[in-house]
Prior knowledge:
The chain has eleven helices and four strands. The strands form two sheets. The protein has a two-stranded antiparallel ribbon with strand order 1-4. By secondary structure, the protein is mainly α. It has helices at residues 3-27, 53-65, 68-80, 88-95, 110-123, 128-136, 208-216, 224-232, 236-239, 250-268, 277-291; strands at residues 85-86, 160-161, 203-204, 296-297.
Amino acid sequence: MPIAVIYNAGRALDETSDAIDHVNVLKGKWNEESKFDQEKDKTQFRDYDAACDRVKNFYKEQHEKQTVEFNIKARVEFNSKKRARMGVWEAMEMLNTLVDESDPDTNLSQIEHLLQTAEAIRRDGKPEWMQVTGLVHDLGKLLSMFGSQGQWDVVGDTFVVGCKFSEKIIYPHTFEGNPDSQDVVYSTKYGIYEPHCGLDNVMLSWGHDEYLYHVLKDQSTLPEEALAMIRYHSFYPWHREGAYTHLMNEKDQKSLEAVQAFNPYDLYSKSDGSCDPAKLRPYYEGLIAKFFPTVLDW
């Protein structure tokens, strides 16, 4: 056999092998159980009974003000204007001054939390798209700098509006001050929705998850699993407590698997050591370039 033929065959094999490796990096085994958190005491996280007054007061305000009327207005406003044009890393730096008033587990800056999440995913050998999802998942908190009414319409656990508030939402008694809890339609099990209509067809309380999902769904090459991780990562009554199954459809089952695979990295990485943004920036800017344009509309 001529040497050229052998060379070309070997080169083709190498290219095929490289392509397979590339697919494995992109798709990967994202839904395998997390490993980084196996030695952690998970009872220390999301302990809202022991939360400080700052957290409790936050949720009281959020639960009283997240109404159907407000959520409709928030979505109209989102579609009516662009707030900024910038790249992903610039957005991370802009967000770095925020401390989340709803979070009982950390007082770290947002860029540290984003890097902690991404690094935990990376250490567990998850695919690149999941690493970069960890890096950007909270960038919707930029809403706090784009004219939000407070933190109550930016951060905190999310829930469905337009039907009865679930008892599986933290501090459920604080919904007594929300006028929707007394509405003849909104206070019923299905409210304005149909059984198993799918989460794409319900309104979640407006905040950073929903905002970032709408920003990125048409400005990235992230897979559907990543977009679900972003959109539903704060939807704890659903992905942790099992609420709202009566509204779910078949697609939501797949989304649930993705969000539950992502959640340990978001939640339990908060006790990890601090990260050095300058040291990690070259690696993550390389990932950002693979999945996002240089500049995004926010």
